[in-house]
Amino acid sequence: MRVGVHINRFDHGGGGPALGAELAAAGAAAEAAGVSWLSVMDHYFQMEFNGGAEAPMLEAYTTLGYLAAHTSTVRLGALVTGVTYRHPGLLAKIATSLDVLSGGRATLGIGAAWYDREHHGLGVPFPPLKERFERLEETLRICLQMWDPEANGPYEGEHYRLAETLCVPAPLSSPHPEIMIGGGGELKTLRLVARYGDACNLFATSPEEVKHKLDVLRGHCERENRDYDEIRKTVTYTGEPATEGDLDAFTRDMTGYTDLGIDTVIVGPRVGEPAAWIERFVAPAVRRLAALD
Q1: Among residues 134, 172, 177, 260, which is most buried (max CB within 10 A)?
Q2: Model confidence at 269, in pLDDT bands (50, 70, 90)?
Q3: Integer CA distances (angstroms), 30 to 1, 43, 65, 75, 109, in order
Q4: Gap between the Cα atoms of 250 and 205, Å rounded
Q5: What is the pLDDT of residue 228?
Q6: pLDDT per residue over 197-231, tens digit each?
Q7: Please, what's the largest Cα pairwise distance for the chain?
C-alpha cells in the first residue's frame, strides 16, 4: 500500500509570504519520503473543521502548478475538483496544462461539488444535486472527447454545448490524464466511476464499509462491462492516529484495508506547516505500509 499526502491548510505562522517556501519544502519532503500522491482541496473558502471561511485558502490549480515546478516524481491532483467551478472545456485545458508542465503527472480528481456557502458567497451558480450530477457526467464526456486527438468537433449536451473540442498540446499522460472520481454514493457516483473513472477515492470509515462500497463498484462494473481491476482504489484517512502522529495506531488501522485492493491511502495534516509533519510521520508511514501483507 502506498501513501499520499493531502495538503488542506494554509495557516502558516509566517502568513501568506511564507506559503510558497513551505509548499516547496512540503513537495521536497514528500518526494524524499517516497510519497506517491500530493493533492490539495478545490475550495475557495476554508472548511469549518479547519478554521472556517475566514481562514487562509489557496486556489487549487494555481497551487498544483506551483507544486509541479517544485517536484519531479509525485502524482498531482485536486481532491477533488468541484464540477461547478469551471466550464468543462476550460477544465480540460487546465488539467492538460498541469499534465504537460508536470511531465505527465496530473490526475483529474473530480466530484459533484457541495459547499453551498462558497458558491453563494462568490456568486457561483449552485444547481440542485441532480443537475450537478448531470453536469458531472457531461464534464467527464467532454474531457474524454477533448483528450481524444481524433474526436475534435462539436459536443451537444443538455447543460453544455461546445462548437469545438480542440486541446493542443495534448496531454503527456497516455491515453489521457487519470480520472479520479471522489465519493461513495452508491447509485450515481460509483456508477460514474465504473463508466468513466480510472481511480476512485473513498473515505476510510472502516474496512467493512469500504469493502461494501467496493462490492457496489464491482456490481456497477459488471453492468457497464468494465474490468473492475483496471480501477485504482484509494482511500482518504482522517483518523486521529495520522493527525496526532501515532504511527503504531495508524499502521494497525491500515491492516484492515490490506485485503481490499487499496492502492493508496491519502493522509492530510491539519497543520499549516506540513513539511515537518511529512518528515516526522509520513516518511516512516511509507515504509510501514509498504511492508504490510
Answers
A1: 177
A2: confident
A3: 16, 22, 16, 11, 19
A4: 13
A5: 98
A6: 999 999 999 999 999 999 999 999 999 999 999 99
A7: 55
Predicted local distance difference test score (pLDDT) of residue 220: 98
Residue 172: is it exposed, middle or buried by C-beta count within 10 angstroms (0-12/13-18/19+)? middle
H helices present in 102-246, as ranges: 116-122, 129-146, 189-196, 207-224, 240-244
Answer whether residue 293 shows pLDDT above 70: no
93, 121 contact by CB (below 8 A): no
| Grid cell listed for 25 | 519544502
φ/ψ of 248, rounded to 5, equals -65, -45
pLDDT, position 292: 84
Residue 204, exposed/middle/buried by CB under 10 A (0-12, 13-18, 19+)?
Answer: buried
* pLDDT tens-place string over residues 81-106: 999 999 999 999 999 999 999 999 99
For the chain, the C-alpha Rg in angstroms (whole number) is 19
Residue among 291, 265, 270 nearest 3 (CA)? 265
Rounded to whole angstroms, the Cα distance separating 125 from 148 reads: 29
- pTM, 2 dp: 0.96
The answer to whether the CB of 39 falls within 8 A of the CB of 109 is: yes
Helix (H) or strand (E) holding 25: helix 19-33
pLDDT > 90 in the chain, percent: 94
**278 burial class (0-12, 13-18, 19+ CB within 10 angstroms)?**
buried
